[in-house]
Design a protein that fits this description.
Helix content: 10-25%
Mean pLDDT: 83
Distance between the termini: 23 Å
Low-confidence stretches: none
Radius of gyration: 24 Å
Order of helices and strands: EEEEEEEEEHEEEEEEEEHH
Strand order of the largest sheet: 6-5-4-1-7
Number of strands: 17
Structural class: alpha+beta
Strand content: 35-45%
Amino acid sequence: MSKKIKIHQTISVYSNHEESAKTSNFLSEGQIVDFNREKRRNGINWMEIYLDNEKKYIKKDFSKIFILKEGKLSDNSCNVLFWEPKNKENYKFDDIFSPVQNEANSLEEIEIRRIYDDGKKENLIKLYYDKENADVYKKILYKKDKIVISAEKINFLEVFSDKKTGYVLSDVSYDETKDWWIMPLTIIIISLIAIGIFIGVLLTGWIVVGPILLIPGFIVAIVVIVFMQIFIAIMSAIFKSIRKRF
């Protein structure tokens, strides 16, 4: 998925990454635009976006925007909650759903579940809604299913599923997709380093190949894995910093 930003509050558009380049255009709540990279100029962080195939800029303000996150579900399964208003009112999530039943006991009940990786534990929240205001339904995502996060709330994550906006519990577990090339590049680099070190030490005669090397080999493998994770994080941070500056 190409990087995208969802607008959660109206925000000004700039033709360049400087204050004087402000245009008369705005991005409105709910719009999704392609995002290229972040830039920092004169103490301001800018988000470089594409509008009508042209580069434009908005200020980095995470109270108004959200960079979409793509990943795969790590849990066994989870419910995705959807709703569609029955009238033209621009309802928010909290306008439709309540965590408690009303005094007249007239609200419909719906349960949202998350089943953990071992398949035995689960988390569950009950919500209540007025069926006169909205049609409410849910679907199930299973382990390894694609999940796209478009906002983070206190108890829920806003997600895209079936080209619609839905909601899952905020504590669902998922593996986020990172820059695809960093992992294979890191594995290649570390593999070459490990092979080079092993051959070098072997040629010195300091070690003898045999079953006795299994334990130190296992320890070395663990150290390499930990080092690889640190190296991946460093590579990702460096890459993002370079893109921001240039």
